[in-house]
Specification:
With 150 residues, the protein is an alpha+beta fold. Helix content is 35%, strand content 19%. The chain has a six-stranded antiparallel sheet.
Length: 150
Amino acid sequence: MNWVMRLAEAVNWRPLELDVSWNEIEAVLGSPLPADFKRFCEVFGRGEFCDGLVVDSTDGGAAHELLDDLADYRKLAESLYRTHLDPHGLYTKGGSGYIPWGRITQGHSLYWLAGQGSPDEWPVMMNAETGEWERFDVPMSEFVFRVFTD
C-alpha cells in the first residue's frame, strides 16, 4: 500500500515532486534510507506536518535535515543523549543504532532502529519525554498516517 499517497490524499496535499540527491545523502549517512521516507520527503518537502509532526526533510538537492540532526545528536552523544538512546545508541556509519527522523510537538522523538535487515523493514521507535520507548513495526509513512487519522 502506498501510505505516502494515502496521506497526501487525506490532507488534500498536491505532491511537490522534489528532486532529491538520495545517492549523495545516503553516501554521507553510510546506509540506504527507507523508500517510503524518501517518497515522503519528495512529496511533502520541509516543514511541520499537520500542526504536530516535524519530519526531517529537504527542499531538494543533497541537503537534508536528517543528516543535520544526526550530526547534532553526535555532538551531544557523550553527555545528554548517551542514556537517552540506550540500549542501542546512536547510529554509526555502516553500523546500527537509532537514526532520528522526526518529532511530535508533544515531546516525542521519532527514530528508526537501523542496521537490522532492509531499511524498509526498520521499526519506527518513539521516545517519550519520560524516556520510555515504544516500537512500531510499520513503515514511517504508515506510522504518520495512523497518528493523524486513527
